[in-house]
Amino acid sequence: MLRVVVLASLLVLSSCTSAKQPAESSPASRLTGVWVAVGTFEDPAGPPPWSNTPWPSNPPFTEWGAEQSRKLADITNVVPCQPGGPLFAMQDVGIFPIEILEAADRIVIKPENGALPRRIFTDGRSHPNDLEPSWMGHSIGHWEGEVLVVDTIGTSGRTRGMNGVGSNARVSRDDSKPRLPTSDQLHLVERIRLVADGEILEDEMTITDPKAYTEPLVIKHYWQRRPDIEVLEYVCNERPRDSGDVIQTKEGGP
Amino acid sequence: MRQAAIVVALLLSAVPASAHHSFAQFDRSKEVTMSGVVREVQWNNPHTWIQVIVKDEKGRTTEWGFECGSPNMMSRTGWKRTTLKQGDRVTVVGNPLKNGRPNASLVKITLPDGRVLGPGDAPPPKPLTKRS
């Protein structure tokens, strides 16, 4: 009996140890964890030296892109709880964390701010020829040394813009930044790596979208490793009262 | 305004703490300040609401709702799910709805123990532990 207890204890101890010390053998396992973007509302760039690239103030819009930008900035066009795409998931301001998880054939990025994960297939597959457009698109990844290179296409073009909180509408007179739409022609290439001894995640994004922009945009966003934070459940339409006219209690009544 | 102890003041525009919807329904040029008793804290993601019962000088009561940031952001700025409980007396400052209904975007709240907390805006990153 004592032997069984000792063995069981060792097994429990062993599993606890391995849980606290994830394998460090692969670059992907080192990306695993919870991350929070370094920017704030007051300072979207965040502190140097790992500062986010500012969104362009005068983007190289196509005619279609400029029109979409105007639409995104109009509060009357806001669709509450519209999902974000892959770029909105990797936003610059540390509002909601992301969680990166590794499996044998894929890396999954789960943003807290929505139901949809990003699945990055790392098993060598190609993008399908008959790709079904989706909110997050289809992502494949490979490693170049310590850099995860992610290639994403197949977005539906129905997402919020890539920048801007508040459903992409201008919400105060001091916010005159142009909203940045994406289309179903989006081709996103990301180079994701660790810097600052693994405390900071760098995501260099090359955004090519010929329907919306006449030339690619290249930006870097930085995320801080936060093992003290958990990604929480998020239900966008729970107790919705954007109009302010409905007060819902736990019982569901006004 | 029907409510007592409401102070309206000009406010420098603040960036809204929303990621899932616009805060355009709130008047960022005005602040209301009131004291009342907490009826309920709705600790929801993406937006927490604090419901406060406010009594005016004639004894009439109104329930005000104050919208905050997400539980994750609030937790990173000093909040816990249990920071407030039903019956706590608080003083609250918020940007009211433009339509006059008794809801506001929380600016700050004074807790029974005197601490003052904000709505849970995204806080800056923590200092790095190692030199890079």
List the helices and strands and how they pair.
The complex is a heterodimer of chains A (about 250) and B (about 130).
Chain A: H1 2-20, H2 27-31, E1 33-37, H3 63-72, H4 86-89, E2 98-102, E3 106-111, E4 118-121, E5 138-144, E6 147-153, E7 187-195, E8 200-208, E9 217-225
Parallel strand pairs in A: 4-5
Antiparallel strand pairs in A: 1-2, 1-9, 2-3, 3-4, 5-6, 6-7, 7-8, 8-9
Chain B: E1 32-42, E2 49-55, E3 61-67, H1 71-75, E4 89-96, E5 103-110, E6 116-117
Parallel strand pairs in B: 3-5
Antiparallel strand pairs in B: 1-2, 1-4, 2-3, 4-5, 5-6
Structural write-up:
The complex is a heterodimer of chains A (254) and B (132). Chain A is of the alpha+beta class and 254 residues long. Helix content of chain A is 15%, strand content 24%. Chain A has four helices and nine strands; from the N terminus they run H-H-E-H-H-E-E-E-E-E-E-E-E. Chain A has helices at residues 2-20, 27-31, 63-72, 86-89; strands at 33-37, 98-102, 106-111, 118-121, 138-144, 147-153, 187-195, 200-208, 217-225. In chain A, strands 1-2-3-4-5-6-7-8-9 form a nine-stranded mixed beta barrel. Chain B has a five-stranded mixed barrel. In chain B, 4% of the residues lie in helices and 33% in strands.
